[in-house]
Specification:
transmembrane, 262 residues, 17% strand, DUF4349, single chain, 5 strands, membrane, five-stranded mixed β-sheet, alpha+beta
Length: 262
């Protein structure tokens, strides 16, 4: 029983020691504007804003969403999408895909409207990937040693229960670490694209006029409400002025009527 406890303590100490990290991992493909060598752990996020006619906002939105769903070759994943046809017509789409798929989507958006802004943000994930690999190796090594210790536990039920419980904990941590590492590699191997579609620069001449007429009643009621609120603040001061002004004027006249002393 004492040997089992010593073994568990030794394995817990091993869990705190990391092994040498590997420099492996697939290098991401060239991005929109190329990619420098030695930067295989970079995560790219692209932002594109396009301006088009009001009538083309929704069709372009639907075309981009459909193109992403159809691009299984590049693993395009639709993360978020919304379209607003209310006061200001605009749409937003967030997608994740391989660099080749991102280039196709950017070309599609640019061909359907005027690109007003375009930018790329890069995040270096080299350190998180290295730490993730070290943790995975540590947990796998710890799991293997626990399994070996489980085999050598023999008929010692108490020791076997403790080792089995520790094995279950390690298995959960190993699954979580594997999922976290897979998420990091997904961010490296695929790019994030945010597309904003609007019609601010190409809205019709009568659109602002119609919007103003539509909001006339609301703006009128808001103006009346603001006027009433302002009157509520001004009224007490007006009453005080009406009451005190005659007294002040009378006092001023008395001061002027007092003869000066020689």
């Amino acid at each position: 029983m004492k040997k089992i406890h010593m073994g568990l303590i030794g394995l817990m100490l091993l869990a705190g020691c990391g092994s040498k990290g590997e420099s492996g991992g697939q290098s991401s493909a060239a991005r929109l504007d190329g990619k420098e060598k030695g930067s295989e752990f970079l995560a790219y996020e692209h932002n594109v804003s396009v301006d088009t006619h009001e009538a083309q906002v929704r069709p372009l939105y639907e075309k981009v969403v459909a193109a992403c769903k159809a691009d299984t070759e590049n693993g395009c994943l639709l993360l978020d999408s919304s379209v607003d046809s209310g006061r200001y017509v605009h749409a937003r789409i967030s997608m994740r895909a391989k660099p080749a798929g991102i280039r196709k989507l950017v070309a599609l958006v640019a061909a359907e409207g005027d690109v007003t802004s375009q930018g790329t943000k890069v995040e270096d994930l080299g350190r998180p990937v290295l730490d993730s690999k070290k943790r995975l190796e540590m947990l796998k090594q710890y799991q293997a040693q626990l399994q070996d210790l489980e085999k050598r536990s023999g008929t010692n039920v108490d020791a076997l229960i403790k080792v089995t419980k520790e094995l279950a904990t390690v298995q959960v941590e190993l699954e979580q670490a594997t999922a976290a590492n897979a998420l990091l590699m997904q961010r490296i191997d695929t790019d994030l694209l945010n597309v904003a579609i609007s019609a601010e620069g190409k809205q019709s001449f009568w659109r602002p006029v119609k919007r103003a007429l539509g909001n006339f009643t609301e703006n009128l009621s808001e103006g009346v409400a603001n006027a009433i609120t302002a009157m509520a603040y001004i009224l007490p001061w007006l009453i005080a002025f009406v009451l005190l002004f005659p007294l002040g004027r009378k006092g001023w006249r008395r001061l002027k009527g007092v003869p000066r002393k020689n």
